[in-house]
Amino acid sequence: MKAVQFSRFGGPEVLETVELPTPQPGPGEVLVRVRATGVNYFETLMRRNLYAVTPQLPMAPGVEVAGEIEVVGEGVDAALRGARVAVPMFAVGRPNGGYAEYLAIDVASLVPLPDGLPFEHAVALLVPGLTALHLVRRSPPRGRTVLVTAAAGGV
Fold first, then answer.
1. Which pLDDT tens digit goes with each residue over 6-30?
2. Is the Cβ–Cβ distance between 93 and 56 less than 8 Å?
3. What superfamily does domain 2-137 belong to in CATH?
4. pTM (whole model) above 0.70
5. I need a surface site. Which of 20, 74, 90, 102 has the fewest CB within 10 A?
């Protein structure tokens, strides 16, 4: 499979397209054919080694993915094959991230997608949407004012 990864820190010039073995799902995992992946600001920080966590190199970034289940691992319901899913967040620094054609991931990490939602829209909702939801749930009590200062960016 093709993947985009970096094996040294730096600007966009360190990103390279490489050929990697297609991962195989283990027990409790599925193989997702990636149809869309988000590009997050913190991933650019990781690529430049400016993030709080130093990733293990080489690294294929990508923490928000949407696609279709192609293969199910042992112990996973075969009826999931072909399902449209999103992967909201997974371990930062994982070497087989979302900048790849395929992703093997624990089935418990998946969120089912409705048929009418384009994959590109799904990934745009993951990190920003879940961040906003988390903040709203932790917001001041009902009746208080909340100021939203940056509604046009990713997060």
1. 999 999 999 999 999 999 999 999 9
2. yes
3. Medium-chain alcohol dehydrogenases, catalytic domain (3.90.180.10)
4. yes
5. 74
